[in-house]
């Protein structure tokens, strides 16, 4: 299995190299070594990823992959595969994401690159959670946690704790879930990682909402929104607004829920994210129907169908 995955890694890289666009993305002026150029391109890719500009992010991550491979910088290749996997997951291509994360894990294991193994295990765990594969998620996340130093307070530790909290919440172990999320929150708050801190508050809102602790859920989601807006994290803002729509709707405040759904839809439309926009249009139709607004519900459903057919939201 290791040999076959390794072979796939080589083939995937060859295909990427010879099918990639011949023009490289514009880069700031300056002279760097190849490894430093690759590191900078990973940074540029991350910036585009955070702004949900996924095509640009992929271009920079692919460039970093080629540069690292050209000087046999294997750790950099691992980082590039992990970064590409995150973009593919965000674009709604879980198969490509899984391939990238597995390639990263296989290579990291071969070169005994612990950080790369930890990150790819955590990424796979998060992906499997999204795919409703909790057993696979648990296996990967526990493997990642086992690689952490005792009482770790690193950014990687925060990510692992957050994902373990999400897994525990999915299984209804809410006390355990909150404990993990608060560990991640302390690390991110002390490190000044605002977007990650917002993500922790978002998960707390989800935990509270699932327990029907709606006032606490609303406060947590509002805090997440405040933090995401402070760093202009568009993807986070859309998720926070959507969460507030869900929470208010579940609490019986349908009008307020609709207001948040509409705000979230505006953000998703600006980002051009069709699947998320369609889900919001579904929620708007359902809320409108609960309020007896059949015509409005039908309009939202028609718009949903148009978006799913390829129209821009």
How do the strands and helices of this protein lay out in sequence?
Layout: H1 2-19, H2 34-50, H3 54-70, H4 74-90, H5 94-110, H6 114-130, H7 134-146, H8 155-170, H9 174-191, H10 194-210, H11 214-230, H12 234-250, H13 254-271, H14 274-290, H15 294-308
Number of helices: 15
Strand content: under 5%
Instruction: Give the overall shape.
Output: globular
State the order of secondary-structure elements, H for helix, E for strand. HHHHHHHHHHHHHHH
Sheet with most strands: none
On the 0 to 100 scale, the average pLDDT is: 91
Would you identify the regions where 5 or more consecutive residues have pLDDT less than 50?
17-22
Helix content: over 70%
Task: Give a structural overview.
The chain is mainly alpha-helical and 313 residues long. It is built from 15 helices and no strands. Helix 4 packs parallel to helix 6 and helix 8 runs antiparallel to helix 9.
Sum this structure up briefly.
80% of the residues lie in helices and 0% in strands. The protein has helices at 2-19, 34-50, 54-70, 74-90, 94-110, 114-130, 134-146, 155-170, 174-191, 194-210, 214-230, 234-250, 254-271, 274-290, 294-308.
Sum up the structure in keywords.
80% helix; mainly alpha; 313 residues; 15 helices; globular
């Amino acid at each position: 299995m290791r040999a076959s995955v390794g072979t796939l890694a080589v083939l995937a890289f060859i295909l990427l190299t010879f099918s990639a666009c011949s023009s490289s993305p514009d880069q700031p002026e300056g002279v760097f070594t190849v490894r430093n150029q690759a590191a900078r391109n990973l940074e540029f890719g991350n910036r585009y990823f955070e702004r949900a500009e996924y095509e640009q992010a992929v271009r920079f991550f692919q460039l970093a992959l080629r540069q690292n491979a050209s000087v046999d910088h294997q750790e950099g290749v691992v980082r590039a595969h992990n970064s590409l996997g995150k973009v593919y997951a965000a674009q709604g291509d879980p198969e490509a994401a899984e391939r990238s994360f597995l390639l990263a894990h296989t290579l990291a294991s071969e070169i005994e690159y612990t950080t790369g193994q930890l990150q790819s295990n955590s990424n796979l765990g998060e992906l499997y959670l999204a795919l409703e594969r909790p057993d696979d998620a648990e296996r990967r996340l526990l493997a990642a946690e086992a690689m952490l130093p005792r009482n770790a307070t690193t950014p990687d530790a925060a990510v692992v704790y957050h994902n373990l909290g999400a897994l525990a919440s999915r299984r209804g172990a809410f006390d355990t879930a909150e404990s993990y999320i608060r560990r991640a929150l302390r690390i991110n708050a002390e490190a000044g990682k605002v977007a990650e801190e917002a993500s922790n508050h978002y998960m707390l809102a989800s935990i509270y909402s699932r327990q029907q602790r709606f006032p606490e859920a609303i406060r947590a989601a509002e805090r997440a929104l405040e933090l995401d807006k402070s760093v202009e994290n568009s993807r986070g803002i859309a998720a926070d607004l959507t969460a507030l729509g869900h929470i208010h709707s579940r609490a019986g405040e349908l009008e307020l829920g609709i207001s948040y759904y509409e705000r979230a839809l505006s953000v998703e439309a600006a980002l051009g994210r069709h699947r998320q926009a369609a889900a919001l249009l579904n929620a708007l139709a359902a809320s409108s129907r609960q309020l007896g607004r059949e015509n409005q519900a039908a309009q939202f459903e028609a718009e949903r169908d148009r978006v799913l057919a390829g129209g821009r939201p």
